[in-house]
Amino acid sequence: MGKVNSYFTRFLPLIFLLNSTCLPVSSSSALAAWSLKSNGVLELRTKKNAYLKAYYQKANQLYGDRFWVDFKGELLNPRTIKGNGPVKEIRLGKPISGITRLVIEFAPQKSINPYQLKLIGVDENKWKIKLTSFPLNSFRTMKEGNVSKTSVSFPKKQELRSLRDIDLRIADLPNIKRNKYSVVIDPGHGGPDSGAVGIDGLKETDIVLDVSKIVTKLLQEKGISVKMTRNKEVDVDLSPRVALANKINSDIFVSIHANASRGKKRNINGIETFYYSGWKGRLLAEKIQKEILKVSPGSPDRGVRRGRYFVIKKTNMPAVLAEIGFVTGRLDARRLEKKIHRRRVAFAIAKGILEYFKRVG
Ligand SMILES: [Zn+2]
Question: Is 244 strand, coil or helix?
Answer without folding.
Answer: helix
